User: Fold these one by one.
Assistant:
Number 1:
Amino acid sequence: MPKFCSGAGHWLEPGKLLGRGGEGAVHEIDGRPGFVAKVYHQPVSPDKALKLESMARQAHPGLLEIAAWPVDVLRVSPDGPVQGFVMPRVNGYHEIHSLYGPSHRKRTFPHADWSFLVHATRNLASAFETIHARGNVIGDVNPGNVVVSAQALVKMIDCDSFQIDTGSRLFLCEVGVPQFTAPELQGRPFHGLQRTPNHDVFGLALLCFHLLFMGRHPFAGRYRGKGDMPIERAIKEYRFAFGRQAADRLMEPPPHTLPFEALPQPVATLFERAFGVSTPSTPRPTAREWLNALEKLNRELRACGRNTLHKYPPTAAACPWCALEKSSGTVFFAAPHPIAPARPVADSRDFHFETVWNRILAVAPPKTEAMPRPGPQAPTVPTPLPAPLKRIQGLNLLKTAAIVGIASITTLNWPYLIWLWLPLAFVAWSLVRDTAVRREHQRRRLALVAARRELTDLRAAWQQRGTDRAFMRKLHELHVLRDRYHNLSADFQRDLQHLETNQRQQQLQAYLEGYFIDTAQIPGIYATDRMALASYGVETAADVTADALETVPGFGQHRGRQRAAALLDWRQSLEQRFHYTPPRGPDPAAIATLQQQYAHQRSQLEKELLAGPEELTKIKAELTKQRAQLNIALIRQAMQEAQAQADLRVFYPGLAAFWRRTRN
């Protein structure tokens, strides 16, 4: 490798090759351990040389902290063309997909929990803000340009493709990845395209979503319309699969994903703003807005009482990861190196099952109590009509009697004109009667309807909260926990026996889990396909099954079957290369994992059983309180209904008298 001349006139000699790509290669620099040289295969164009020189002049400690930023150019001779540049060495970092993909994360970031992911997301937003603060734009936002460390520190790489503004000249970014490109730029050529920070933050929101939602692409949902919905088209049509408007856009999230409702409202709103229609007056959230919201989220995270590896927002009613792992069968956060069985939180030696169970049985069930059906305690006195309305009512009766009399006489004298007299009589009656009484009647009738509806609602509430259902449901749950606790030893021995008899399948599973779809060369499988597969939890060869592929949009029918067949063929070819090594016994790591799982189960069961008596007592006390409140409300509402009935009967005095006689 020849020497190169730096912009300062120093000769630098590239050393060990660190990596090679389509544009060039990265080498160590002899004598400069903290920096590396990117050497292009051919000298760059004059415009690219000016861009690199401008970036080197912009080099600032803040940029160097978050990016592999050019600090100097490399020429083939002091006055020759530029053929490379010097940048800080990025050590101990991994591509960001190895953090957000669950299968990758187990290998590369085994200690990472959701708080680690939130912290990395916060640092990603900080990196974007640093770049935007200096007037520059990333342009080609995609996972391949972001790396992350074991401390959740984030750095940007491939910075020579950024859009750079020198103040006097703008150097464009003319590359991009459609699956991370803003809707308004979809389908447009990148050549000659000027990007803005508002375009960048669309890509930032996509990366944030990938980190928080285990590698799911927010636009790779299930489309309920006709035909396929590629990610690029879904982006262009604003078909965010997780938001509150998803159903209106005929989209729904993939199965076994973190519920969007688990996010605190400020963060959820940022995603909906980022993935909705953007206008000059309603731009997407800035990197600073993301930074502030994620810092707040990270401060407020709580640990799950059942599994301390689970972290979740305080706004969630319960741990979403427990429910998700139970429904999917996937462990999203696992201890990296399980060893001997961990000691349960509640020491089993101090847990006496019979004593605890007797305490549970000592809480007597609440007494059965029928729902009260109170009647009025005394005859209800109706509210009389005001004197003016009584006079109007009397006049209306006289007018009605007069019109009926006239109509009867005319009908008797000229019966063949009955078709004329009756409509005329009705019109005359409508015109001469006063409607004030009718309005009062309507008001009292609606008051009775409302009183009856409220009484019905109270009776339904009593059936729901005034019975012993909640107590008996909790008691049944405790019986189920008791049975599970008694069966723990037998279940452990069964699973241990399964480890001993199923060692070949375990070796094959571990072997297939080492082959990732995103790094494999599979005919007919493209970037969009890989993102869709990852969004449905298909990351490795072990995940590739006919049933799993059937659930992924674009893989179930027509041309999608060819892609599914290519994946299944890939898995089969790997299985054919697998060689089973019979061990002398079960894998110690697998045994340790099993022991840890059962120790954790025992701990949780003991904790829930210990809390049983107190929970039953609370439910019983709450039931007594609810019954007292509902009884008072039922009595009060029954009186209101009786009053409303009496108030309405003043319009029917004959019926009211009959009602009183039948009551007596």
Number 2:
Amino acid sequence: MLKQQERFTTKGLVYIAIDRTSWGAINILMVSLIYDKRAMPIYWEILDKKGSSNLEEQQRVLGKILKVLSGHKIVVLGDREFCSVSLGKWLQKQSLYFYLRQKKVQMSRQKKEFIKK
């Protein structure tokens, strides 16, 4: 039998996804635990507005989960809504790994050269 903390880790990493969805008139920002190719919602907030979430809201929902998962190596996954330099810097400051999907046309810099992706 696995120890509790080993159940949801893959090679010592805990994968969580941040996502937002509209369900009718309800706008939900959630964090899910990724396990066995499934996303299980573990925290969510209903946003009191329409449209995308902002940095403050994203930090707030992720912060709730970081308290619970402290002591684990965490990888945060996010789609294009969460692809901001500010969020990336904040995640880095929290010592988190992250994969944030880039928009179709994105400029990135490698060794002082710009590359169109």
